[in-house]
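Contributing: when you submit paired examples, paste them exactly as shown. First protein:
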Amino acid sequence: MNLQSLLAARIHAGKPIHVGLIGAGKFGSMFLAQIPAIAGLEVAVIADRDVERAKAACRTVDWEASRIARTHFAERGSAAIGDERVEVVVEATGDPVAGIAHAMAAIEAGKHVIMVNVEADALAGAYLARKARAAGVIYSMAYGDQPALITEMVDWARSSGFEVVAAGKGTKYLPAYHMVTPDSVWEHYGLTTAEAKAAGMNSQMFNSFLDGTKSAIEMAAVANACALDVPQDGLKFPPCGADELAHVLRPQTVGGVLDRDGMVEVVSSLQRDGSPVERDLRWGVYVVFKANSDYAAACFKQYGLPTDGSGRYAAMYKPFHLIGLELSISVLNVALRGEPTGTCRAWRGDAVAVAKRALKAGEMLDGEGGYTVYAKLVPAARSLAGKALPIGLAHHVELVRDVPAGEILSADDVALDDTLLAVRIRREMERTAEGGRQAAGETMAAE
C-alpha cells in the first residue's frame, strides 16, 4: 500500500526504475500504455522480433516521439537483458521455449524477472524460481494476469486466518470446446473470419482460451504458487455465477463439486446447455474460504458476505482483470519491496498435451490452441509417473507413433530436441522431483 511513497524516494534519489521488455504484443502494449503516467518508471529497451511492430505499438498507445526516440529497440531479448540500465526484465513473448531461455539469461545476469509468459512458468517454473532464489534475484508472476491476482487473493485469505477451500477464475466453457480448432474458433466469439483478421486477432491464440488450454496452464501456475491441489483428471469447469461460488466450490462431502478442500478450479460462464450463467465470472477471479469458528461464520452473515447454506463457506471475487494495464504493480513490488507478486513454490500441477483427434506417426504437433492437442491440468505426480508431454513442449515436434483421440501424450510419443534449453531444464526439473519423491518414500518406509 506504499508503493507510491517508495517510488517517490527513488525519484528523489534520481534513480528511476529501468525495465527491459521482451515482446511487444497485446500484453506488452498495454503495459507500455501506462508508462508515461508513472513517474520514475522507464522502459529502457523493447525487444521484439519485429522492431517496426514494436515501434508501431508505442505509437498506438500514444507514446510521444521523444519517448520513442530515447528507447532502444532490438530484435533479440539479449539486448534487454544485457543493458546495464535494466533492473527488471519483463518476459512477454508467450513462447515457453524462448521464455525459459530469456529467464535463465536474465537470472544469470543478476536481473529480476517478471514472467508474463505463464506458458513458460507452467513448463518449468519450479526450476526457474529455484535458480532465481539461488542467484539472489526475484522471479515473479505478472500482476494483472489472472494467476497473480488469484495468488494475491489466496494470500489475503490465509493471512486473515481462513482456510482456502478453492481458488481460480472464470471462463467461457463447454465440453465440446476441447475439440475446437483455429478454423472454427471465431463462431464461438461471435465474429466472422474477416472481422477477426481485420482486427489483427490470432486464431490459434484465441483458440487456446476456448479449448481449455489456457485455463490448464494458468491453474497449474496457481497451484504451484499457492500449494493448492489440482483435480486428478482435469478441471471440471462447473457452471457457476458469482453468487454461487461458496455453494458450488466446496467438497463433494458437503454438496459441492471439489474432491476436497484446497483445490484450484475454473468456473464456466455457460450452463451445459449453452445458456448463460447468471452473474457469470467470465473475466474474473475468486477465492472460496472457510470460517474457523462460529463467531467468524456469524460475521460473514453480518457483513453481507455470500456464503453457502451452512454459512461456513464464503467467497470473495474480483469480476475483472486488466492484464498489462496493471503490470507495473509487479515491477514496482519487485524493484521497491524486493517481493514477487506470486512465484512458483513447488511443482504440484502440470498442463499436459491431450490428442484432439486420432494422431498418426509422422504428424507435427502444433501446440497451444492448435489443431492437434489441447492441455489438461493433472497432478504433477501423475504427469511424472506417466512421462506426460507438457503442452509447452508440444509445438513443432514430430510424432513417432500413433496416439488415439483423447489420450494424454507421452514424451516418448514425440521426437524432442535434446539440444533445446527448455527440454534440458524440464528434464532436470523432473529428475529433481522424482528424486525428492523417492527420498520421501524411503523416509516413510524407514519410519
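Second protein:
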Amino acid sequence: MKAIQTIGERVKSYLEYPLLQLGDITISLWLILYVVVGIFLLLYLSNRLRRLLVNRVLLTYTSELGIRQAIGGIVRYIVVFLGLLIILQTAGIDLSALTVLAGALGIGIGFGLQHITNNFVSGVIILFERPIKVGDRIEVGGTHGKVIDISARATTIITNDNVSIIVPNSEFMQSRVINWSHNDQNVRFRIPVSVAYDSDVEQVIKLLLEVGREDPHVLQEPPPAFRLVEFGDNGIHFELLVWTSEYIHRRGKFMSDLNVRIIRKFNRHGIQIPFPQRDVHIREGTPSSAGKA
C-alpha cells in the first residue's frame, strides 16, 4: 500500500512539474492534460446535447428539420463557449493573462487564419439568419443539391448522383444563392413545348392541361396552367406551368416524366412537334451570264 502511495506521489510530482511560465500562469503537464481532456469531453457532450435537442426535445415543438438543426447548432456554440470559460477558470488560468496569447492569435488570423475565421463567422450568421437550412434545395456556384449538414466551417450538399460536396460557409455570404425551398416545399416548374403551325391550338392547350392534371406528382392547387410564349421560326412555343412539392429534389426526373406524357398524348392525337426546317431556293443563271461563261 505504501509502495502504491509512493508511486502516486511521484507521478503527481511529474505531472505538476512546471514546464513553462506564462505571466502568472505555470504551465505543467497536469494543466495540459486537464485542459485537453476537459475540452474533449466538452465537445463530445455538447454534440450529444445538440443531437438530443434536434431528435427528441425540439421534435415535440416543430417537425421542420432545418429549424431544429439551427437551434441545436446555436445552443452547442453557446455551451462550448461557456464550457471553455469554466474549464480555464477551474484550471487556475487567469483569463486576463491571456492577452498575449490573444494578440498572437490576432496576428495569426491576420496572416493565415482569416479564411477559417471568415467561414466560422459565416456559419454563425447562417444559423441565426437561416438563409439556408438543412433539407433545403439550393444552387450556389454551379453546385446544385440538398443541404444535409451545416457545420462551423462548411456546409455539406449532396447531389442527385449521391455525391457530397463540401462548400465553405463564406461562399454563401459572397455568392448569389438560389434556394428552391426557402419558404415552403411548393415549387412551380415550366415545361417548354413547341407544336407545328398547323396544329389545333385549342386541342394543344387541352392536352397540356390534361397532362398536368393526370400526373400524380403535380399539385392541383394551384392548378396547372399554360402560356403561349411566342411564335417561333419553326413552330408555336408553349409552356406548361405545374406546381409540385414531392419532386423538388428530383427536378430532372419530374420534367422527364412530364415530357414523356406530353409526347405520348400528342402522338395519340396527331399533334406534331416541329423540327428546324429551311427552304432553299436555287436561282438559275440568266442567258447573258451563261453566254459569258
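If you have annotations for the second protein, write them as plain sentences, like these:
The two ends are 125 Å apart (CA to CA).
Residues 187-268 form a domain with the Alpha-Beta Plaits fold (CATH 3.30.70.100).
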